[in-house]
Amino acid sequence: MFSVHRLASRLPFLLAGCLMLSPIAVRSAQETFELQKLTDGVYASIRTEPVGLGVDANNLFVIDDDSVVVVDTNFGPSSTRQVLAALRRITSKPVKYVINTHAHDDHVLGNSIYRQEFPKAEFIGHAFLKEYLPGKGASNRQNQVKNLPGFAGALSETLAKNMNLAGQPITNEERAGYSSDLRMIESYLKDAPTFTDVLPTTTVTDRLTLTLRSRKVEILHLGRGHTAGDLVVHLPQEGIVATGDLVVYPIPLVGGDQSFVAEWSATLERIIALSPKIIVPGHGPLMRDTSYPRLMADLFTSVTTQVKAAADAGQPLDEVRKSVNLDQVRQKFAGDSQLKKFLFANYVTGPAVMSAFRAARQEQPTR
């Protein structure tokens, strides 16, 4: 459900060509996603919740002659069952491969449903995912489950008072986002007793190509960024790339203790070099060009350059935070939205400076 990687420094969780791009009629009234056809045999499940603190993952489905490849699962069994039901309305073929782009819960917790429904399915992830989930991942999830009820209470209180989390009068956008967050928390906590990790049966550290009957699926580790183990799924014939959380709209998701801001821009440039016609981001709408990944690359280059200069001059982290100025680039991401400015401060400014400072000091991440 959530990007349960505790990326936010001030919140207990992060909810952090000619190809066809049209919704198809497979959405029920209860579903908060749209299944969109990208080309013959390739579909994306794109989340439709309002922007908020919480996120669930987009999914990519590649339907071959006799089987299906699924890219990313969802934040828990309930959410994943809904997405699988939508997939079942367009094909009855079995799922043969499940690819997880990285280790965070909103991309892996639904693995258990695919294991249950398709016992012969193969699960593919970066080697880091296999290491992370049983250790730090399990610990982070336990803390998440423990902290969420209290945070839900705080959210409910702000809504009742018509205030936002910063103590300002709440906007309609914030009210919609907070309400969506509360629904996500309720679903996550309801599912929590059944959470089970399904680890990769095949791990990737560089690249792996699945040669299907009708097309090739390239699974690529193009570098670190959102985490140490980000994978990109590339359909070279169709020009489609699923990026996981290397690309997230409208506000990037950065972890001061998990992300690699100083390397992220280069990883994004490698995605851009694939010349994608369609990008399926980890969160956010489909992208038909590379302008947004370029904006993200510019952001992380600016952070890295400013932080390195300050760190090289001997400034401590507190002073570095004060010296870094992201006002202009923040405007490009957040505009005049009170909610997006808050998200940018929590999920970009604070953790990105920490990540870049860690790199400038040649310090390893803590998780």
Annotate the secondary structure layout.
Blueprint: E1 22-23, E2 33-39, E3 42-47, E4 59-63, E5 68-71, H1 77-88, E6 95-99, H2 105-108, H3 111-117, E7 122-126, H4 127-160, H5 172-191, E8 202-204, E9 207-211, E10 216-220, E11 232-235, E12 240-248, H6 261-273, E13 278-283, H7 291-312, H8 317-323, H9 327-334, H10 338-360
Parallel strand pairs: 5-6, 6-7, 7-8, 12-13
Antiparallel strand pairs: 1-2, 2-3, 3-4, 4-5, 9-10, 10-11, 11-12
Helix pairs in contact: 1-3, 4-5, 6-7, 7-8, 7-10, 9-10
Percent helix among the residues?
A: 40-55%
Structural class assignment:
alpha/beta
The largest sheet is: 8 strands, mixed
Name the CATH superfamily classification: Ribonuclease Z/Hydroxyacylglutathione hydrolase-like
Q: Strand order of the main beta sheet, please?
A: 1-2-3-4-5-6-7-8
Query: Which runs of at least 5 residues are low in confidence (pLDDT < 50)?
Result: 1-29
Please tell me the CATH architecture by its name.
Answer: 4-Layer Sandwich
Element pattern in H and E: EEEEEHEHHEHHEEEEEHEHHHH
Tell me the distance between the termini.
Answer: 20 Å
Describe the protein's architecture and organization.
The protein has 367 residues and is of the alpha/beta class. It has a single domain, classed as Metallo-beta-lactamase, Chain A (4-Layer Sandwich). It has helices at 77-88, 105-108, 111-117, 127-160, 172-191, 261-273, 291-312, 317-323, 327-334, 338-360; strands at 22-23, 33-39, 42-47, 59-63, 68-71, 95-99, 122-126, 202-204, 207-211, 216-220, 232-235, 240-248, 278-283. The protein has an 8-stranded mixed beta sheet with strand order 1-2-3-4-5-6-7-8. It has a 5-stranded mixed beta sheet with strand order 9-10-11-12-13, covered by helices on one side. The two termini are 20 Å apart. The model is unreliable at 1-29 (pLDDT under 50).
